[in-house]
Each structure stands twice: as structure tokens, then as C-alpha cells.
Design brief:
globular; transmembrane; membrane; Isoprenylcysteine carboxylmethyltransferase family protein; mainly alpha; 194 residues; Four Helix Bundle (Hemerythrin (Met), subunit A); Phopholipid_MeTrfase
Length: 194
């Protein structure tokens, strides 16, 4: 049973970030297992990224638990975590009728999404994940976690480039080239320029 005395013991910024980071990662995990199509099973690079993702998140959550969050780290961390959750949810809603294949799948694309977050960026799921790990690293106040975020960013950039190569080799190549010119890979062109 909740009591006011227990509330006084809470470390509000830290506890809020810990709960939010855990809930978002749970949503990512459910999406990984239940949402994305696996036409050929789970490709080995995706398995590696999933393991790294879990390890990075474990490090973030462990550090958030051990580190007293300050309001200076709380605000940017909270902002990035909420942006991550919003973008992930928006991407799920946009793709619910045409579910995407898991990263690194070898199947050829048979449709092009240009609605929802896909109007702004070509890889909103990857952007959501990267916002999450960046926000979590700020929440954890552990600069060494930036190395893990860099590895994750490289892994998702590799996945994105492979997906774009699949589009370039598909009947959707011309449409995808036009789409690519007006959207950013991970950041919107119109907001951040080149």
C-alpha cells in the first residue's frame, strides 16, 4: 500500500526516468518479437543488434539506478525519451496495415511508405531507438555509454543502408530515389538542413 512517507523516499527525477526508460524498452521488446515480419527468420546481424540493445539498455538502467539524476540531466533525458516513445508509437500506427520486415531481412520491398513520420524521415524506428539510447545515456550520466550508443548508431546506419540498397534494386527504385531526395535518413531535412 502506498504511503506518503514512502513518497518522500522517492528520488523523483531518477525514479521517473527509470520507469520511463523501462516502459519504453518493454515496448521496443514487444515490437521486436510481435510486430515486425520475419520472412526468413531473424537475420544474424539483427540478433547481434538485439543483444547489444539489451546490454546497452541494461547498462543505462543500472546507471540510472545507481546515479542520482539532477534536474539538469532530467529535462534533456526526459525530452529525448518522450520524443523516442512518441516517434515509435507514431511509426507503429503508420505501419500497422503494412507491417515492415525485421532489419537485415533479405526480402524485396513491395511498398513504399511516405505517410506519418515517413514524410519526414526514412527510418523513424531507428531514430526512435537512437533517441532512446541517447536520452538514457543522459539520464544515466555515464559518458562511457556513448560508446555503446555509437555502436548502436553504426549498426542501425548499416541496416538503413542495406534497406535503401534493396529499394534501389527493386521496381520501386525511381519512387524511392525521389522520396530519398525529400527526406532525411534519421533527421528531417527541413528542420536540420543537409
Amino acid at each position: 500500500m502506498w504511503r506518503w512517507e514512502d513518497h518522500k523516499k522517492m528520488r523523483l527525477p531518477q525514479d521517473l526516468l527509470l520507469i520511463l526508460a523501462s516502459v519504453i524498452f518493454l515496448a521496443f521488446t514487444i515490437g521486436y518479437f510481435a510486430y515486425f515480419r520475419r520472412p526468413e527468420g531473424t537475420p544474424w546481424p539483427m540478433r547481434v543488434l538485439a543483444i547489444l540493445s539489451g546490454a546497452t539498455t541494461g547498462g543505462i538502467i543500472s546507471e540510472i539506478t545507481d546515479t542520482r539524476a539532477t534536474w539538469g540531466s532530467f529535462v534533456p533525458a526526459l525530452t529525448l525519451l518522450l520524443l523516442s516513445a512518441a516517434l515509435y508509437g507514431w511509426a507503429i500506427l503508420t505501419t500497422r496495415r503494412q507491417r515492415l520486415s525485421l532489419a537485415f531481412s533479405g526480402d524485396a520491398p513491395d511498398f513504399l511508405l511516405a505517410e506519418g513520420p515517413y514524410r519526414l524521415i526514412r527510418h523513424p524506428f531507428y531514430t526512435a531507438y537512437l533517441l532512446y539510447w541517447l536520452g538514457g545515456t543522459i539520464a544515466a550520466r555515464q559518458p562511457l555509454l556513448l560508446l555503446a550508443v555509437g555502436v548502436m548508431a553504426a549498426g542501425f546506419a548499416w541496416a538503413a543502408l542495406r534497406e535503401e540498397a534493396k529499394f534501389a534494386a527493386s521496381p520501386l527504385a525511381a519512387n524511392y530515389a525521389a522520396y530519398r531526395r525529400r527526406t532525411g535518413m534519421f533527421l528531417p531535412w527541413r528542420i536540420f538542413g543537409a
